[in-house]
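Ligand: tryptophanyl-5'AMP. Inputs:
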Amino acid sequence: MEEKKKRIFSGIQPSGELTLGSYMGAIKNWVALQDEYDCLYCIVDMHAITVRQEPALLRKRSVNQLAQYIACGLDPKKNIMFIQSHVPQHAELGWVLGCYTQFGELSRMTQFKAKAKQHADNITSGLFTYPVLMAADILLYQADLVPVGEDQKQHVELTRDIAQRFNGVYSDTFTLPEPFIPQMGARVMSLGDPGNKMSKSDPDGCVFLMDKPEDIMRKFKRAVTDCETAVKFDKVNKAGISNLLTIYCTATGKTIEEAEAEFEGRGYGIFKPAVGEAVVELLRPIREESERMIADKAYLESVYKEGAQRAQYLANKTLSKVYRKIGFVAR
Ligand code: TYM
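Predicted complex:
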């Protein structure tokens, strides 16, 4: 008998353009896992509004992000791909789970602390309870695995804690999810400041999937390194070079040792443009395919509509179980 496939859920906020960080930390793995698992890949627009968004831009980015998912190699026939706000069960379960999450737990989330600093004039309760909505995303679909970059590990661990607590009170309801973090590329750093994560809020240090080749080359040629000359992996003393090595190896499939040997005695003046070229070649087909896809609005609409329907069917099963267990009267 064929064994039931395990389930995956993951998502990215359409709060900016997709970045090389989100590709290497998350999407690359989504593509690799799509045959082996039963996958749901979401465009989490409800998460995006935890900081202020321009409405027209949010709408455009949400649809473009779907085009980019497909261009990266995600097959809409194999995966359920949808927009979070199209499945109201996310918000409904989010409310319930918020009643099983401690204020103290949310106060410890490092992403909240960082974003609260970044948006000091607009620290909303949505920003604070964001990890509860993320827990609802994952638990609604009984996901076994959540492929994310390192920065999301803490949120997946909180999700497990919330699930465990709920299961403890009401008997087994939720599958306990595990984070799935890549060995290489889990934390791509900024090209301008290798002490910080590459992020869409820092456009100079960040490579976007839709960047043109000349922009990618310029960003890599300008990447901050150190005043030595050896291309060696050493995260503590050579953070910039180590980050470039990681990007190079993730883009080409080479090991760090192979890359170090390739650039031995060749200096940064050769190495930095070589990393740029590897990324240009990695992203070229993705950019070209995204441009084709973005033009086909009718197709994209059919994908996200069907995705939402299939997602709702699964989400409803979990939500009705939860409502029954906590004592809500059946509709
Ligand atoms: P978001 O939108 O900030 O990032 C999307 C994914 O990309 C990864 N990532 C990176 N990985 C490596 N290096 C980087 N510099 C880098 N920048 C981003 C992130 O780890 C993430 O996997 N809360 C999530 C979105 C979310 C979600 C979910 C994820 C909402 N619900 C349910 C999984 C499951 C977020 O803000 O990711």
